[in-house]
């Protein structure tokens, strides 16, 4: 984790930004909860435990900055809550999300859309640069409850 932090620090410096203690605290929370797709409020609550003086606006500004620098990505699952996760360098996203409409649980599946992209490009002569897909439905737990 220290290594990732150093890497991001370098990236910030190369874009003329400093890794302030507030930014570092926010990044640490993001790194510690990498799998969690935290919302800004959740990130704020966790950062506040470590740095009680930090304000929500500072956390928001840090998240915006990290998004601008393409270090993290803002995800919108249509529930009105923005969530954040780290971006992978080689491909804008390696995975897609399954979102349960009942309990709100979120899981990841690998990207299986390369073939589909090829077909769309071929059939519609459309050059695809990105796609956004979320799968909405009911997780295993919620399915059995409904029965
Ligand atoms: Zn569920
Ligand atoms: Zn994810
Ligand atoms: Zn994809």
TrEMBL record:
Its protein name is Transcriptional repressor
Q: Tell me the InterPro entries matching this sequence.
A: FUR (IPR002481), Fur_C (IPR043135), WH-like_DNA-bd_sf (IPR036388), WH_DNA-bd_sf (IPR036390)
Protein's organism: Tumebacillus algifaecis
Q: Which domain of life is it from?
A: Bacteria
- Give cofactor(s), names only: Mn(2+); Fe(2+); Zn(2+)
Does Membrane show up as a keyword for this record? no
Name of one Pfam family that matches:
FUR
Which GO molecular function annotation, any one, does this entry have? zinc ion binding
- UniProt binding sites for Fe cation: 94, 131
- Keywords linked to the UniProt accession: DNA-binding, Iron, Metal-binding, Repressor, Transcription, Transcription regulation, Zinc
Q: What does the note under cofactor report?
A: Binds 1 Mn(2+) or Fe(2+) ion per subunit. Binds 1 zinc ion per subunit.
Query: What does the similarity note say?
Result: Belongs to the Fur family.
- What Gene Ontology biological process does one annotation of this record name? regulation of secondary metabolite biosynthetic process
Record-annotated residues binding Zn(2+)? 100, 103, 139, 142
Which Gene3D superfamilies does UniProt cross-reference here? 3.30.1490.190, Winged helix-like DNA-binding domain superfamily/Winged helix DNA-binding domain (1.10.10.10)
